[in-house]
């Protein structure tokens, strides 16, 4: 089949890399794609916000399956537009994608259907939000309602930090635009975070290997939140018993709830979870593959990804389609100096070829571009360096061995990815 992947980041590079291994894929395209994908797919520079234009392009090129990587096109209704054109797409329609598009919708859905999550309050004005923070104290969690590229969450350890975050989101600054005009204020949950991604066609649900992301920019989980500084899989914090409990008390109830609400969900559902002993609560839902969790999960996938994604899009998913390799994967994100704040672009990257030649190592491009034959930085998160081995410890060693071969001025990365697993 002819397959199109929408997006150009590290997650999409990983999806393209795995789809390229499928014997079912005849021709692979990526819009807009990126330098890392060029040997694997034909990259087409098009605007991913022009949904009608994308659908017409897909029709012209006889695309059998479109895989939507980022959340923004899903929330905007790309799958709806494609379906109206008779095109198959992997990912939820707009009404179902609201589970990520609106934190308020997501929390209220969980409350209505008794899905375990943190206690919360929705605030529509800065004064109301500040008063609530003063009443509750810290630590406390502030979340912008809408999409904020993974950066609209502040875990405030002090009241001062919480009030500053509210000023940024709801005050003069409006850091996230309309996404921060309403906020959710949540209780701070103690425990260990874990990400469980699931394939679903709306009826059948098949979990992937649990992964753990590293949100904070510095070692030891210090500094501001980012889109993710690295990930590993499998995450030992989630035992088989806890995985089953998550499916029974969180994933299945939410998929069923969305169906009841007239918002049937298919594609990948991402559950960000907080685990404390045998208690599991939802931190957040995403309507797509996680980034950088995908870079750690898909290298361990042993099925045919094109077959599975097509089955999700056509209501024909079976658990036996989803298979896993033994072993572990570790992904280390190399970011631009200054990230998650402002950072320079256009800095030359060296050592990519040398790192990519290492056994069981793949370098996924998150924010790069090619200028006159040279790969340069073009984003906050630049590369996801992933290695696979028998154990997390060996995969980590292999990944950092590859990181050491790659250089660009100001490069920053955490040195402790997978520390929680290794501390066990």
Quick structural overview:
The protein has 424 residues and is an alpha+beta fold. It has four domains: 1-92, Rossmann fold, CATH 3.40.50; 124-180, ATP-grasp fold, A domain (Dna Ligase, domain 1), CATH 3.30.1490.20; 191-319, ATP-grasp fold, B domain (D-amino Acid Aminotransferase, Chain A, domain 1); 326-419, Glycinamide Ribonucleotide Synthetase, Chain A, domain 4 (Alpha-Beta Complex).
Number of domains: 4
Strand content: 25-35%
List the strand order in the largest sheet.
3-2-1-4-5
The CATH superfamily of the largest domain is identified as: ATP-grasp fold, B domain
CATH class of the largest domain reads: Alpha Beta
What structural class results from the helix and strand content?
Answer: alpha+beta
Q: What do the pLDDT scores average to?
A: 95
**Share of helical residues:** 25-40%
> Which runs of at least 5 residues are low in confidence (pLDDT < 50)?
none
What is the number of helical segments per DSSP (H or I, 4+ residues)? 14
Give the beta-strand count.
22
Shape: globular
Q: Based on the coordinates given, report the CATH architecture of the largest domain.
A: 2-Layer Sandwich
Largest sheet: 5 strands, parallel
> What radius of gyration results from the CA coordinates?
20 Å
Fill in the CATH topology of the largest domain. D-amino Acid Aminotransferase, Chain A, domain 1
**N-to-C span:** 44 Å
Enzyme class: ligase
Catalytic activity: 5-phospho-beta-D-ribosylamine + glycine + ATP = N(1)-(5-phospho-beta-D-ribosyl)glycinamide + ADP + phosphate + H(+)
EC number: 6.3.4.13
Protein name: Phosphoribosylamine--glycine ligase
């Amino acid at each position: 089949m002819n397959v199109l992947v929408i997006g150009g980041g590290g997650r999409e590079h990983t999806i393209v890399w795995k789809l390229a291994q499928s014997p079912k894929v005849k021709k692979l395209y990526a819009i807009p794609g990126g330098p890392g994908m060029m040997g694997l797919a034909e990259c087409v520079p098009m605007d991913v916000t022009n949904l009608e234009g994308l659908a017409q392009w897909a029709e012209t090129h006889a695309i059998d399956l479109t895989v939507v990587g980022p959340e923004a096109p899903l929330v905007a209704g790309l799958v709806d537009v494609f379906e109206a054109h008779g095109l198959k797409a992997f990912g939820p329609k707009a009404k179902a994608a609201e589970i990520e598009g609106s934190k308020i919708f997501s929390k209220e859905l969980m409350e209505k259907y008794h899905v375990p999550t943190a206690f919360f309050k929705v605030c529509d004005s800065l004064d109301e939000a500040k008063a609530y923070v003063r009443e509750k104290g810290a630590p406390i969690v502030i979340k912008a309602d809408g999409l904020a590229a993974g950066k609209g969450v502040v875990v405030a350890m002090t009241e001062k930090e919480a009030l500053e975050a509210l000023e940024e989101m709801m005050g003069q600054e409006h850091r996230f635009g309309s996404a921060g005009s309403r906020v959710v204020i949540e209780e701070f949950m103690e425990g260990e975070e874990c990400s469980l991604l699931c394939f679903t066609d709306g009826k059948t649900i098949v979990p992937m290997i649990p992964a753990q992301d590293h949100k904070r920019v510095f070692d030891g989980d210090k500094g501001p939140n980012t889109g993710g500084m690295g990930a590993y899989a499998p995450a030992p914090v989630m035992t088989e018993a806890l995985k089953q409990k998550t499916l029974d008390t969180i994933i299945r109830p939410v998929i069923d709830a969305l169906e009841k609400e007239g918002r049937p969900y298919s594609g990948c559902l991402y559950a960000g979870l907080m685990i404390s002993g045998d208690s599991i609560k939802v931190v957040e839902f995403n309507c797509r593959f996680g980034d950088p969790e995908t870079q750690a999960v898909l290298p361990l996938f042993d099925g045919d990804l094109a077959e599975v994604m097509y089955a999700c899009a056509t209501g024909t998913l079976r658990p036996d389609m989803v298979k896993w390799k033994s072993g572990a994967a570790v992904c280390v994100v190399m970011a631009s100096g200054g990230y998650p704040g402002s950072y320079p672009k256009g800095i030359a990257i060296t050592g990519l070829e040398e790192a990519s030649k290492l056994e069981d190592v793949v370098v996924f491009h998150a924010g790069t571009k090619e200028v006159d034959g040279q790969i340069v930085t073009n984003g906050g998160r630049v590369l996801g360096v992933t290695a696979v081995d028998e154990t997390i410890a060996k995969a980590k060693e292999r990944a950092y061995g590859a990181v050491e071969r790659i250089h660009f001025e100001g490069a920053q990365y955490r040195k402790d990815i997978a520390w929680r697993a290794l501390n066990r």
